Amino acid sequence: MPKLIVTNGDAATDRLKAAGIAGHLLPWQDMLHDGPVPASTLLDEVSDARAEFLAEALGRPFDDVRADFAHRDAQIDVHGAYNEVELWFEHDLFDQLQLIQVLHYFSHEPDRMGLFLIQASHYLGMMEKDAMRALETARTPVSAVQLETAHSAWEAFTAPTPMRLAALAAEDHPSLPYLAPALRRLLAELPAPRSGLSLTEERILSLLTDGPARVAKVFGAVHSMDEAQFLADLPFFLRLDGLAFAHEPLIEGLPYRTCDCGTLSFAPEDGSAGEATYRAYASAEISLTKAGAAALKGRFDHACANAVERFIGGTHVMAGAMWRYDRATRELIAPN
């Protein structure tokens, strides 16, 4: 059979097709940096948790989302039917978490010959055909060190505390060179010591200090602030929800919560009610509240005052277990 190609999403598969790179294309499609990720060696158990989270976030029926995961997982489970498997992943957080999940999966499989890795320092979905073809010629066999590193990283990511994750983020990993920077970016989504803001939340509020702005404009600006850009519209909108609908709101102007928008993994362009709802949300003008301005100055603790609750992999950040991360010193701060 032709080779199996696992990559980050539909944009990448489209570019692979355009470049004439033959194989069965499997987009992995999961934003693992948001929502619970259980510590399990079984894809089914991870997919159950991911589907439950995404169904609620997207406002879609659980059975539909779970069926998408089941279809994806079934395709990688038959990898033995292929002579080769190629893993195509980028340098950003979105891809690096997908990569360690896939490598963790293969670390539990019987020895697999013909497993190759392509690590891209640019965005696959934006590459020209020649660049895609050149990348394939640079593929390398997946090594035992890469499998071991990914196995450790996945276990750290899904652990109930971020302590092992912080330790891995502080080290270089030559076999997976983009892993440590990605993990540091993930840790930056923990609440900061005084403001209780994640890095994304802080950037949102900072952009509003000069006055109100449209959601779409703020999203574009925040997205571009990362050197390795990873933030899609759905996780960004979820951050806005957390700021706008908290007990003490830090922003105002959102017309409704993200889950009321329908499918937000991409902007619909079909003239449907979903498109109109999406556009109404994206065009809404948001502004800073007094609490938001105080948080930026470290005078209001968003995480504490608003009982922030979110998952960073397996770590449930919540009242009583409020892990924090000092981005200036790269120091993990345990709950009091």
List the helices and strands and how they pair.
Elements: E1 4-7, H1 10-18, E2 24-27, E3 35-36, H2 43-58, H3 62-77, E4 85-89, H4 93-107, E5 115-119, H5 129-137, E6 140-141, H6 144-157, H7 163-169, H8 179-187, H9 199-207, E7 213-214, H10 215-224, H11 233-244, E8 251-252, H12 273-282, E9 285-288, H13 290-296, H14 302-305, E10 310-313, E11 315-317, E12 324-326, E13 331-333
Parallel strand pairs: 1-2, 1-4, 3-10, 4-5
Antiparallel strand pairs: 5-6, 7-9, 8-9, 10-11, 12-13
Helix pairs in contact: 2-3, 4-6, 4-8, 7-8, 9-10
Give an account of the 3D structure.
This protein has 336 residues and is an alpha/beta fold. It folds into 2 domains: 4-186, no CATH class; 193-307, Arc Repressor Mutant, subunit A. The chain contains 14 helices and 13 strands. The protein has helices at residues 10-18, 43-58, 62-77, 93-107, 129-137, 144-157, 163-169, 179-187, 199-207, 215-224, 233-244, 273-282, 290-296, 302-305; strands at residues 4-7, 24-27, 35-36, 85-89, 115-119, 140-141, 213-214, 251-252, 285-288, 310-313, 315-317, 324-326, 331-333. Strand 4 (85-89), helix 4 (93-107) and strand 5 form a beta-alpha-beta unit. Helix 9 (199-207) crosses helix 10. The protein is globular. Mean pLDDT is 94; it is low at 263-267.
